[in-house]
Amino acid sequence: MASLHPSLPLEPRPARRRAPAPAADPSLAEKALEIHHRLCPVYGCPIPYFHSLDPLSELVSSLLSHRTRNADSGRAFKALRARFPDWSEVIDAPTEEVEAAIAGVRWPEQKAPRIQASLAAIRERTGRLSLDFLKDMSVEAARAWLQEMPGIGPKTSAAVLSFSVLRMAALPVDSHHHRVAQRLGLIGPEVDVGPSHVVLRAQLPADWGAQELYDNHEILMLHGQKVCHHRKPACDRCVLAGICPSAFEVA
């Protein structure tokens, strides 16, 4: 197995000693809830889960999806599983064979050693290739455990817990979700994707379960894909235009 390449595009890691989650601004918490209630009828909450993968497989899927279209990362995941039916085979394979199997994603030459290293680290830490034990941990403890590994940050840890069959109450934030939240004023322009996880989760009800948080992520992501585009957002057909400070301001 090849060693990690120093230029890998890593997901930002939080500081090892993290401060408690900040209390949400009451006005922003109210706005976040209003946004949720307006978007849910548009995108059909509750939204069915798109994956039913075990958490280890979801970790690999999430690593493949970084800056890659879902369709492409999905095909790459299936190709990887077809070539290597057991995850231990991925660890022991020549890196160029793993890279060839995932050739459809962006940066396969970087993601191949990253996947191998992540799987190897899990096996070294636990003595087996499984993340099923995370179900017995709190969301905070499970995310902290995952984020101790190089290259796994808030987005990946939340995706593993939320999208996998664990169905734990974690809020992932992808680039579409992040963009929409910034334009709506839920987070400031200086708040990057990684730190936004804590801020955006704190704005939502503390007692929300896995489905509500999954819905919140999905509706904001879908809104970013379908309406609030990176360029030329369709503000004229946006149900949030009346409460969006960026409405009709982005070219």
Describe this structure in words.
This protein has 251 residues and is mainly α. The protein folds into two domains: 26-48 and 171-243, Endonuclease Iii, domain 2, CATH 1.10.1670; 55-163, Hypothetical protein, domain 2 (Endonuclease III, domain 1). The chain has helices at residues 26-43, 55-65, 70-83, 87-92, 95-101, 108-126, 139-147, 154-163, 175-184, 193-202, 210-226. Helix 2 crosses helix 8 (154-163) and helix 5 (95-101) packs across helix 6 (108-126). The radius of gyration is 19 Å and the shape is globular. The model is unreliable at 1-10 and 12-20 (pLDDT under 50).
Largest sheet: none
> How many structural domains?
2
The CATH homologous superfamily of the largest domain is termed Hypothetical protein, domain 2
Number of strands: 0
Broad structural category: mainly alpha
Assign an overall shape. Answer: globular
Rg estimate, integer Å: 19 Å
Determine the strand fraction and express it as a percent band.
Answer: under 5%
In DSSP terms, counting alpha (H) and pi (I) runs of 4 or more, how many helices?
A: 11
Give the helix proportion (percent range).
40-55%
Distance from first to last alpha carbon: 46 Å
User: Taking all residues together, what is the mean pLDDT?
Assistant: 91
Examine the secondary-structure arrangement and name the CATH architecture of the largest domain. Orthogonal Bundle
